[in-house]
């Protein structure tokens, strides 16, 4: 029963993180292109917090681009037609892994662009960067069939929310176990109505959880259903 529960939970988690990832890719590419043009995302070192990390990200992206363009006709057309070492930002976001995207976003030091990206999620940009790193880790566990329902996330833990939105902050009390899946699911419960307004994802998750008696091992507080994010 626990195995089947974990499998269904992983599928729901993957669905939500997929939605999150698509919006993040789109906003990252769009906001950078609007402000810095097609190639400014890798040419403008001054918009990143750490130049050494930016160099590492460029090298990593170049390897992903080199590995990908020969198998995709759209990418291949660009490579054969233009003499650029790296693609424009709207193609770069197509070849980046979720983890690579997270590293580029985390290193972004231009607050105007970071805030514009974060506005799509209704979150502070500093929190969103840490949350993205956490969701990359959770996604990797779920995608590789690793147990998640009672896992302790000791690396890339979801950061503490110190600012608005108040609705999410009240649902993520700091005295809760910061390394359990409850906090992840609460974040996804907050995000999904904003990413997919007509989704029934939250209802499906609540139905799955209602069948379980092990919620405390997942970090759920006894009163979780009365917390803002979890209310109907």
Structure in words:
The protein is mostly helical and 232 residues long. The protein has one domain. Helices cover 61% and strands 0% of the residues. It is built from eleven helices and no strands. Helix 3 packs antiparallel against helix 6 and helix 6 packs antiparallel against helix 8. It is globular. The model has no long low-confidence stretch (mean pLDDT 92).
Question: What is the number of beta strands?
Answer: 0
- Give the helices and strands as they follow along the chain: HHHHHHHHHHH
Separation, N- and C-terminal Cα atoms: 27 Å
Averaged pLDDT, please? 92
Name the descriptors.
mainly alpha, 232 residues
Quick structural gist:
With 232 residues, the chain is mainly α.
SSE blueprint:
Blueprint lengths: L1 H35 L3 H4 L7 H18 L4 H9 L7 H7 L2 H10 L3 H9 L5 H19 L22 H6 L9 H15 L5 H10 L22
Helix pairs in contact: 1-5, 1-7, 1-8, 1-10, 1-11, 3-6, 6-8
